[in-house]
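Risk register update: the risk of archive-format incompatibility is retired. Evidence:
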Amino acid sequence: MAQPAVATGMLCSQREQKVKQLILANLAEPLEVTELARACELSRSHFSRAFKRTTGVAPREWIRQQRIKRAKVLITASGLSLTQISQECGFCDQAHFCHLFSRSEGVNPMTWRKLQLRYRDHLKALQLAIVNCNETVIQNTAS
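Archived output:
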């Protein structure tokens, strides 16, 4: 079966998937655009243009976005310190991580963590209230 035509100047789906998987598998490591281009068998400049046309953002920005996404998961789901999270996500240091996180999310990582924990606690309380309400309704209708 013939493959669908790729829009001019864009990465084909195989290259896009390959480079995204490569990035996600190595977020904790320094990632060079030259290495990503080499993995796609393209020149650095052609790769950068094609990646931006395909994803809407430059490779460095896409990497930053993925690092912030991973950091948000770690902030919410782990007890790791910000220093540990910054290392796990490939930031050069905690200060750089905090600066980029704040610029991206509008609040620093510790404030974001507190807001997420508060939101999670409110959500649990709401779920419990719904369960209790449903049990009361079921008990009343069973009588």
